[in-house]
Give the backbone structure.
Amino acid sequence: MMTLQILSMWGEIESGNITYDFRYQNRNFELIDVKKFTNNSTKGYTDEDTIFTETNFDLVKGIRTETDEIFGSEKPLSTRKKTKLIRLLPKIQDFKYSDKNSY
């Protein structure tokens, strides 16, 4: 039985953070998932009007989902889904931190 090996890399970005998950397969680490959390705060702190955006991009399925919500609310303000076909999964050796804007 083969176990799935995942390498996760976390980093801070402007107004949030981002996590990249790489799967080890065929002697390579391939990017399979990107999770990004951001907020629209411009004051240096969050308050009851701050909108938090969670972006999940499953590169294997090609589905990118963005959800906006206000802290403490029971329902999201909005959810957007996009389908984007990824023919070849990016490999870790080709990955650049500046690629964060692509996801």
Notes: Residues 6-92 form one domain. Residues 19 and 99 are 12 Å apart (CA to CA). The first strand starts at residue 6 and ends at 13. Strands lie at 6-13, 16-25, 28-39, 51-58, 63-70, 78-83.
